[in-house]
Amino acid sequence: MKVRTLLVLLGLLAAALVVWRSERGAHMEAVDVTTELSGRWTTEAPGYADRFLEIRSDRVVFGRGGDDAISHTLVGVYRESEEDGAASFVLAYEGEDVEQPPVELKVRRERDRLVLANQPNVSWTRAR
Question: How many other β-carbons are positioned within 10 Å of the β-carbon of residue 113?
Answer without folding.
Answer: 14
